[in-house]
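User: Hey, quick favor. My workstation is busy. Could you predict this chain's structure for me?
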Amino acid sequence: MAKKLKVTQTKSVIDRPKGQKLTIEALGLGRPHYSVTKNDTPQIRGMIKKVSHLVKVEEIEE
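Assistant: No problem, here it is.
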């Protein structure tokens, strides 16, 4: 069973550095309360760590 992560944006990217805005976009988010499901990989974990103050993460077993 592969682990998946449900990533939900909780805060806006207005007045955030460009790198954080681009990371949110690369995760497939863009507005508060949007959610996406991603595979649990080191790359995705690193992106989440960079914007951890803007997102909420839940682990999903599939």
